[in-house]
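User: My instructor asked us to take a sequence, write out its structure as tokens, and then describe one feature of it. I'm not sure where to start. Here is the sequence I was given:
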Amino acid sequence: MQRRFVSIWFRQLLADWQLIRRPELAEVPFVFAAPDHGRMMITAVNPLAFSFGVEVGMRAADAKAICPGLEVLDDKPGRPKNLLRGLGEWCVRYSPSVSIDEFGMDGLLLDVSGCPHLWGGEREYLKEIVNRLKSKGYTVRLAIADTPGAAWAVSRFGKVTPLIPSGEHVDALLSLSPEALRLEDTILAKLRKLGFYQIKSFIGMPRSILRRRFGEDFLLRLAQAIGTEAEALIPLKVPVAFSERLACMEPIKTKTAIEIAIQKMLENLCKRMQSEGKGLRTGILTGYRIDGKIVQVSIGTSCASHSVSHLFKLFQLKIDQIRPALGIELFVLDAPKVEDVEVPQEEMWSSKPGLNDNSVIRFLDRVAGKVGAQAIHRFLPATRYWPERAISKAASVTEKASNPWRTDKPRPTEMLKVPAPIEVMALIPDHPPKFFIYKGVRHLVSKADGPERIEREWWMDKGEHRDYYQVEDEEGCRYWLFRSGHYGGEQQHKWFIHGFFA
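Assistant: Let's start with the prediction itself. The structure tokens for your sequence are:
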């Protein structure tokens, strides 16, 4: 597929932005200025101030002298880039790959390969973008060509047509001035000094001569414009491998229409994932509203899945969170996290299905969609000695344990995250307590078993250990207590409660 690029040039980015915020300035000449070596230098000019001869790079004091009533506004570093980032995120509805023009910091570059046909062709595609941006208050010029450099050049210096047919971008460059190649001022000065006022004056010259006269940067820009050298664009949002887009003929407002859109995108997405043996772990649905706002919901699965019905049910739980307002004109369904789908081996005599049963996994996904994934945890044994550290959180339902659970010693059914200190009375050192006080309640011990000594790992601090006891009080409740340290030892002994038996 032939790659195509669109350049969007915001001719007066800061001025348009200010007029959108303050429409009362429409009849007032104003400029933006920033300090530079102790002087206020103009960084942006509105058309009315420009008609008085005020230009970018002029001192604010000189501009006031030639333009009566000029209003000088403070510019802030990085403001153009922040504005372009916001406009670029809005333009994602027209292309998944949108980049900021770093050269002039006054435009965007879009990789639109395979996109214009969704709007009926390239001419209608450009017309749609121009009309939408103008309706928001921005003055723009667009061009589409085979290379980012050619599109950039035509959008700013072209005088015939913004739509350059495939394969004709070199001819479109010939009559343009060297400024269209995004060259530095020093190189442009050399070109003018030699009488090169159009690209066709030097495009056919040997590369060795051009390199000797103007350097490697000049050759790189020329090669990028004509397409012999690829130009890397850094997108604001990195496109994911598995993604589906659905442009709507009319703005969508109803729940039923949103469900139809999700169903259609899921069918295409799951078909692609299934063909590559992949399954979705995280899905993000983004809706671009006609008022410029973006709405987004996400789902997650316990294991990789390409089941349309299952994923659709997960999204159904989130549809009420989508606020279409005046309508959604574009849906984007991304799967930023996918994994290989493991096909379970069939067994002739199967035991209880447990977590290997897909119905259980799908049930957990639906529960997570309602109460949140953070409410569901699965733990695996970890190779640590102290009980509160002997577990690790599983990344997925299908993750296997590296070592088995310890079953040779009894363990409580409920264990505290952090052992709680208690007051204890023991008749003889190293014996179980006669009673203990926990949360102000005195428990008289009737039965006890232990101790079970558990020491820290060898790579931790040496000498620290715990002696665990299983005790039962007069009411028949059983507890897991431990003593840390020795009686009369260097470390002061302390007692803690760590768990409760059923």
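For the description part of your assignment, you could build on this observation: The CA atoms of residues 54 and 63 lie 6 Å apart. Try explaining in your own words what that tells you about the chain.
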